[in-house]
Structures are given as structure tokens and as C-alpha cells.
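This follows on from our talk about sequence and fold. Please put the record directly below this note.
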Amino acid sequence: MTMRDIKRRGILLVLSSPSGAGKTTITRALVTREPQLALSVSATTRPRRAGEVDGEDYHFVDPPRFATMVANGELLEHATVFGHSYGTPRAPLMAAIESGRDIITDIDWQGTQQLQAKIGADLVSVFILPPTMAALEARLKSRAQDSDEVVRARMAKSSEELSHWDAYDYVVINDDFEDSVRRVQAILSAERVQRRRQVGLAEFVNRLRGV
């Protein structure tokens, strides 16, 4: 028997950063490279961008439906960012964790705090820092998704977001994309073998001991 054969509780891996620091790009790379890692699909009232697919990138809902989800306790966390609401659906995420599957999401610090309060030790949080503020601004402009006004607003908000770095379990400076992905993969690998997550470990050890 190997560690993969021992029943394990899943992980919710959360990546946060200021807009443009790389959390979404790193998240997508990890989902591609880690077969056991699935992306949590958030609900949002934000309009769909070109190329986005409902149910894959986000669950796109209107504000009244989002309000109903909040009222019914269907979301583990929710927040409003730049005029749009975002939230993490409770049912699919908890079902995955309880069945031993790992989930990754990229959300802001407010959402991470709410998740921490709701799911505790099932959460592993990573804050992604930009190497410089100039690099952060350049990345925002290179995306060509937002107006100059929105870019300025995101830069103004980034200082506040950066102040919450010390609330996270791990911090990665994204000065090299490939290195950053490898670092987060190493975090995930280590967290998977935490003793408290190996819910089938006691049974395995007892078999080894013949008791």
C-alpha cells in the first residue's frame, strides 16, 4: 500500500494577490499540471468577458439570484469587488473535500477570511506578491481587458490588498512564473501528507502493528 491508497481529506488551496500579480495565471497552470486538482467555479454578477464560458470560468448570475444564494447559505464566502459580487458555492466544494479531492480557487483576502472561518483546517492559503509595483502596473496594462481608469483604481486598491499578506499560510513572490508554479506545487504536495489530513492513517498503522 502507498500513501495514495490511504483515505485522505481534500484541501481547498486558495491563492490571493492584488489584481495583476499572477494568482489566476498560476491557478490555471496548477490545474493543468496537477491531475488531482480541480478548479472551484465561483458565482459572479460580473459581465462575461470575451472567451469566458458559463459554468467553467464562472457561474454568471444576475444580482437577484446572487442575493438569493447568499440568503439561502449557498455560498461559503462572498464579496463585492469593483462593483461586482463574487462567491464560492458551498455544496460542490464541501463534497469534493469530504471525498478526498483537492480544489483550488483564486479570491481576495476578504473571501479568504470568510473561508477560514467556515472550513478551518481544510483551507491552505497562499499570497502571491509582485516583484515590484511597476511590474504589477505593467501586467495590468498588458492584459488589455480594463480601461485606464480601472487600471488606476486597481493600482490604488493594491496597497490595501498587500497589507494582508501576513494573514496567509504561505507567501510567494512572483518574479519568475515557472518558479512560482513550482513553489505552489511544493506547498500542495507537503499539505497533502499532513498527518491530520490522512484520515485513514490510523487504520493503516494498526494493520501494520497487527492490532
